Amino acid sequence: MKLTLRVWRQQNADADGAMSTYEVDGISQDMSFLEMLDTLNEELILKGDDPVAFDHDCREGICGACSLVINGDAHGPERTTTCQLHMRSFDDGDTIDVEPWRASAFPVVKDLVVNRSAFDRIIQAGGYITAPTGAAPEAHATPVPKPDADYAFEHAECIGCGACVAACPNGSAMLFTSAKVNHLNVLPQGSPERETRVLDMVGQMDDEGFGGCTLTGECATACPKGIPLPSIAAMNKEWLRAQRKAARR
Fold first, then answer.
1. What predicted TM-score, i.e. pTM, was given to this entire model?
2. DSSP string of 17-64?
């Protein structure tokens, strides 16, 4: 395959960025998108040019590091992570635009790399769960109903990639935050702090400068792990309940 790549190049968050055009040839349809970028970077290095900076780690679809907007879609045309997107999803001769996540809460570090530490601070705001010290408790001492366990696992699948923010026209982080809140709050171990957790995490999300949620649904459509849109409504109910309890104190 021969492709034309239009790649966003930006030295740092304070510098002006622009699209640069590159031609790559000899691309196999079996390559992942990141392997194709590796090929481009090898050619740039051989020419003495600065390679394109992009995030990646596991390349197995579980770490959420590969944050790219491809032809206007978070992670590209398939509902998967960029590292699991293969070049057979494109045609020979295609022109492909590659950009970083676009959100004020995700400043550009360089080229396609953005700083997503805002997500880390939201998780940190959730604090810890109450846990007894000493000997490990019997595994079955705290029974968890099957529907609750399934619900928790469904939300625990969130890998924190930020595709929901990149896809949202408002740059909202509600789907990410709701996944983290619902994952912990539905389990008995996380129940004692459920009110403070949702208030603190939503408050931190707002402080980070993410946009407001208008339930357009683009976040759930782009999520590579299928976090459902009703997750947001569930978190809103938790937040309202916690607000009422806090007001009565």
1. 0.92
2. -EEEEEEE----TTSBHHHHHHHHHHHHHHTTPPPPP---S-SSSSS-
